[in-house]
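Summary for the steering committee. The consortium agreed at its last meeting that each partner would contribute one worked example illustrating the joint modelling workflow. Our contribution is presented below. We chose a case with several input lines so that the handling of multiple components could be demonstrated. No manual editing was applied between input and output; the record is shown as generated.
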Amino acid sequence: MVKMETAELDTDLSLFKYDTLEQLPSRYRDLEEEERTDRIEAALEELGDDVVILGHNYQRREIVEHADFIGDSYQLSTEAAEADAEYVIFGGVTFMAESADIITDDDQSVILPSMEASCPMAGMAEALQVDSAWAEITAAAPDDEIIPITYMNSYADLKAFCASQGGLVCTSSNAHEAFEYAFEKGDKVLFLPDKHLGENTAHRLDMEDEIAEWDPWDPEGKDADEVAESDIILWDGYCQVHERFREEHIEEIRADNPDANVIVHPECRREVVEAADVAGSTATICETVANADPGETWAIGTEIHLTNHLQRWHPEVDVVPLCGDACMDCNAMRQIDPNYLAWVLEELAEGREHNVIEVAPEEKELAGVALDRMLEI
Ligand code: 13P
Ligand code: SF4
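What follows is the complete predicted structure of the assembly.
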C-alpha cells in the first residue's frame, strides 16, 4: 500500500468566507418581533418588485414567513435564475448566495443579510487544498480520466475548479444524475465535500464496492492504491447537523410507534439512510409530508427548523424530529437573524446596499459553467 505525503498548504482558512461583510448595527440588536415584522413589511412594500426574498427550508420561521420562495438549494438556484428583481435577498448560507450571484444577471445584486452564515462543510474543501490533492489523486491513476463533482455546498472557487477539470455541481436531489453524467465522460469521480452524500449516491447506483475515501488532513487516509482501484473517490467532509442522526434514533422511534415512517436527508450516514423508509433532499422531505395521509406519523431526519415548519404547515400529520431533543439546528443557517433582514431591507429602501455577495469575475464564469452543467442534466 503506497501512502502519500500530506500536502503543504499556505491557505488562509477563516471561519467566515467574507469577513469584509458588515455586522449588524447596534440599533437593530434588540428589536421586538412585532415592531420588526411591521418594519420589514413596510420596507418590502416600499421596495416592491425591486426585491425578492429566497428562503432555504432550514431558515427560521421569522425569515421564511417573509420569503417569496421557500425551497431546497436546487429550487432556490432555479428561482434565482428566473428572478427579475434588482435585489435577491438570500435567506441561506454563503455558498447559496454565491451560486445566486453566479446565476443572476450582472445588473442584479445578491444580499446575504448576515456575514456569519458560513457552512462548515463548505469550509472542509477549500479550493487550494483540493487543487493540491488533485495533483496527488490524478498521479495515483494516470491512465484514468477523473471528473470532479462538487456538492452545491461548496464555495465558488471550488465550483470553478471542478468546471476547469470537466466536472460539475450537484445538489442532494440530482447527485445520482451528476454521477451518471460524469461516468459518461470519464472513468472515475472525485466527489466533494460530503462523503455521506457520495456514499449514499454510490449505493443508489449499485457502485458501493467502488469507493475510496480521501482524507486530506491525514496521510494515512490517502491511499494511492485504493484510488487507482476505485471508481469513486470521496473527500472526507461531512455535515455536523446530519452526522448526528444514528440508527438507534430510528430504532427508538419504531419501538415507540411501529407505524411511524422515517425520512432522512442523504447527508446522513449510510446506515441511517439504509434504516429509513425514504431518503431525499429537503424538497423531497417537504413533498412527502405534504402528501401524507392525515394521522400518519413521519419522523424527520434533517435540520430542526424544517421539522418545525412541517409541523406548522401540516398539522394533520404527526411530524416528529428523529432524534428528539438531540436534534440540532444549523449554526450557519441560524445566523440569518430577522434583525439583519430588517436592517438590509430598510437600508435598501434608503438606497444603501449592505452585504452584497460578489463572486470574483474570473471564478464567476467557470463556476457558472459547473452550475449550468448541473441545470442541464
Ligand atoms: P438541500 O437543500 O440540497 O436539500 O441541502 C440541504 C443542506 O444541507 C443545505 O445546506
Ligand atoms: Fe452546511 Fe449542514 Fe448547515 Fe447545510 S445543514 S448549511 S450542510 S452545516
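Residues 72-74, 119, 153, 171-172, 239, 267, 281-282 surround 1,3-dihydroxyacetonephosphate (ligand 1) (CB under 6 Å). Residues 90 and 112 are 5 Å apart (CA to CA).
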